[in-house]
Design a protein that fits this description.
Low-confidence stretches: none
Mean pLDDT: 85
Number of strands: 3
Largest sheet: 3 strands, antiparallel
Radius of gyration: 16 Å
Number of helices: 4
Helix content: 40-55%
Distance between the termini: 25 Å
Strand order of the largest sheet: 2-1-3
Order of helices and strands: HEEHHEH
Structural class: alpha+beta
Number of domains: 1
Length: 100
């Protein structure tokens, strides 16, 4: 499903205000691991999906990476995929609003 830039911008505004502690993996574009010494490692989930990895493989990759880096990880930052969120939420939103 293709969305306009204006449409995605509205979803990005909504997403920006959401607490990002429990996000479905399907809705993440990237995970940025903040490491000791002001270093970071970015895992581009969007690119990995394009390469053919499924949800289970992505989860395994993230788990292994976090395990390998262990205590070097001081924080995580999630980059939410607005298009994925919109694709999931918009049909349900349209259905609810059509009944008003």
């Amino acid at each position: 499903m293709q969305f306009s830039d204006e449409f995605l911008s509205k979803w990005e505004c909504l997403i920006g205000d959401v607490d990002k502690t429990e996000i479905p993996l399907e809705c993440l574009k990237k995970v940025i691991l903040k490491l000791e010494g002001r270093r970071q490692r970015t895992i581009n989930l969007h690119s990995l999906r394009k390469q053919g990895l499924d949800r289970d493989e992505l989860e395994l990759f993230l788990t292994r990476t976090l395990g390998d880096l262990g205590e070097q990880v001081v924080d995580l930052e999630f980059v939410v995929d607005a298009a994925a969120v919109a694709a999931i939420a918009q049909p349900a939103t349209d259905k609810i609003l059509s009944k008003l």
